[in-house]
Each structure stands twice: as C-alpha cells, then as structure tokens.
Amino acid sequence: INMSFGTVNKSEALEKAIKAAKDAGILMIASAVSVHYTTRQLISEEMRRLCDLHNETVVLSSLRGDTGICVDLVKGHHNLGISSENGYIVPLDCGATGKTLLAAQSDELVERLIQNYPGLEEKLRNQVKEIRQRGYCISEGEVDEGVAAVAVPLPMPDHIYTLTYSGPVERLRGLDYMVLVHSLQQAVKNILLKCDGKRKEAL
After folding, report:
1. What region, left, alpha or beta, does residue 135 occupy, with left being phi > 0 and alpha being psi -120 to 50 degrees?
2. Using CA atoms, how far apart are residues 122 and 173, in angstroms rounded to an integer?
3. Dihedrals φ, ψ of 70, to 5°?
C-alpha cells in the first residue's frame, strides 16, 4: 500500500511538474510574441511620425533570405508620390535602401550576398565600406527614374532593418537630404531606446 501511495504521489508530482513546465513555456512564448509585436508597433509609430514630419513616404525594409523586401510603408499625402506597396523587392546593388540594407549585414553575409552580383563585387564592397563609415546612404534615380531615397540602418536585437525616406528627387532635395538623414537617425535612436525600455519592463 505504501508503495502504491508513493507511486501515486510521484505521479502527481510529475504531472504538476509537466504542467508547470508547459505553463512556463506558454508564458515565454507569449512574452516573446508580445515583445515582437511591441517592437513592430514602436517602429510603425516612429514611421508615422517621420511621415507626418516631412509628409514623405517612409519605407521599412529587411532581408527575406537573400532578397531585400519592403515590409512596411507609410505614404505621404502628396498627389505626386511613390506608388509602391508592401512586399515589393528591394535590389541590394542599387538605390539607398538596398545598399544600406546590404551594408548593415555581417561581413560574412555581405560577402555571400555580393556573389549574387557577378562583376560588381568590388564596387559593392566599396559601397558597403562607405555607407558604414557615413551611417547613411542617398541615391537619385538608381532604381526608379526621378525618385530619390535617403536610408539609414535600423539594427534591432532580433532583426536588421533599414528606414528610408523616398520621393521625387526635386522634392527631397528641397527638404535637404541631411535634414532627412538626421530625422531618420533620430527615429532609430527613439526606437532603440523605447524597445530597451520595454524589455526592461518585461524583466
């Protein structure tokens, strides 16, 4: 009888331990989802603020495999603006967005990615070096004729993005490219500070 009772107790204890482990796992997963959702929410809020600040389209891009993709976009209210939508492909060998996205990756990944552009390897290496030194990239008409872009890296703890202002060349020139650079860089600082604050709250 004592042996049976001890077996029952052990069984109950094991069940409780398994349930506690499952609950902890569920909480950890829920916490991770919450942090990820909050991170994207914070980025979206800053993108809307950037759009309101200069009334120009703001683009968030990242890598999906070896391909650059626009993952979020907030459009300005000008009649003449950018017609792109979420999900469009961002070339890594031209345009401020793609070149900045490439430069933001690790050295090993950069070397692997530039192999997709035979004959341009040395040019891309030089561009990566220059963008890393400056901390931003500006382009005019490299992807779409008459369209300018100003991009900065947004290195999050779990993913690397780029933030970009995009619009007609003359309009962005009129706003002053360096003013747009500073606005984007301030947004990156805001996002990183807020995300750090959210993580500390969760601990």
Report:
1. left
2. 29
3. -80, 120
CA Rg value for the chain: 23
**Which position has the token pair 């996205």?**
101
Within 8 A by CB and 6+ apart from 63, the residues are: 69, 101, 105, 160
Chain length of the chain: 203
For 96-106, what is each residue's pLDDT tens digit?
999 999 999 99
Q: How far is CA 197 from CA 27, 157, 179, 190, in A?
A: 20, 13, 27, 11
Whether the predicted pLDDT of 25 surpasses 50: no
- pLDDT, tens digit, 9 for 90 and up, residues 168-194: 999 999 999 999 999 999 999 999 998
Helix or strand run (H / E) with residue 97: helix 96-103
- Which residues, including other chains, have CB under 8 Å from residue 196's CB and lie 6 or more apart? none
Q: What is the pTM of this model?
A: 0.77
- Reading the block at residue 85, the tokens are 């939508």
Judged against a pLDDT cut of 90, whether residue 85 lies above it is answered with no
What is the per-residue pLDDT for 84? 64
* Ranges assigned E (strand) in 97-173: 137-140, 147-155, 160-168
Residue 157 per-residue DSSP state: S
